[in-house]
Specification:
Two copies of one chain form a homodimer. By secondary structure, chain A is an alpha+beta fold. Chain A has one domain: Alpha-Beta Plaits, CATH 3.30.70.100. The first copy, chain A, has four helices and four strands. A four-stranded antiparallel sheet of chain A has the order 2-3-1-4, with helices on one face. In chain A, helix 2 packs antiparallel against helix 4. The longest helix of chain A is centred in the first third of the chain and has 22 residues. The model of chain A has no long low-confidence stretch (mean pLDDT 91). At the A-B interface, strand 1, helix 2, strand 2, strand 3 and strand 4 of A face strand 1, helix 2, strand 2, strand 3 and strand 4 of B. Strand 4 of chain A pairs antiparallel with strand 2 of chain B, so a sheet runs across the interface.
Amino acid sequence: MKINYKHSIIITLMLLSFEIASAQEKTQLVRLAKLQIDPAQLENYRAILKEEIEASVRLEPGVLTLYAVAEKDKPTHITILEIYANTDAYKAHLLTPHFIKYKTGTADMVKALELVETDPLIPGMKIK
Amino acid sequence: MKINYKHSIIITLMLLSFEIASAQEKTQLVRLAKLQIDPAQLENYRAILKEEIEASVRLEPGVLTLYAVAEKDKPTHITILEIYANTDAYKAHLLTPHFIKYKTGTADMVKALELVETDPLIPGMKIK
C-alpha cells in the first residue's frame, strides 16, 4: 500500500485519538462498594439505589458506570462496580441532588459499607 | 400529532426491539469471581488473564464483559464482574481454547476462587 498525504493524516488522527483515550483511562477512578442492607428495608433500598444510579448515569458524563449486583444467596449483600472518569467527576457526583437524596434517604438502611479502591486490569473495558 | 400507518409500524418495531432487549437481559448470567493469586506469580497470572479476557470478549459474542479489578491495597485479590448473554454462551466459553489455556496455565497460581452468582439491579447497564 502506498501511503499518501491523506493516509498519513488519517493515521495521525487515529493515533492521537488512541493517545487521548489512553490518557483518559489512566485518570479513571474504579472501585468496588460492598454494602449490607437491613433485610426489613431491602425493597425500599433497592428502589432508591436504582433511582440514584439511573439519574447519575443519565445526568453525569463523568459517571461511567454504577453496575450494582445483589448476591443470589444473600440478596442483602450488594456490590457496586463504580467507574468515574476522574477524581473531579467523583467529587462533583457527591454534591449532586440525586446522590445527596440517596445518601440521606438510605442512611439507616445501610448496615455496613466498605469502599475498596481498585485498579482495572484492562482500562477501557466495556459491556457489550 | 396524527399517527399514520408508517408511524404505527415504527412504534411497533421500537416496542418489539425493546421487548427483545428485555428478554435478552433476563437470560443473562451475571456473577462475581473472587480470586486470590500466589504473590510470587502475580505478574505472570495478570498477563495470562489479560490475554484470556481479550480473546473472550473479541471472539465470543455471548461474553458481554469480563471486567477485572485488583485491590489497590491487596493486588493479589482480584475480582471479575462476568456477564454472559445466557447459560449456553457461558458453557461454550468454558470449551474455548483460550479459556482452557487460561485454566490449565494458571491452575497453580490461583490460591482461592469463589464464584458468587448475582442478580443485576439494572440489567442492561453499560459502561460509557
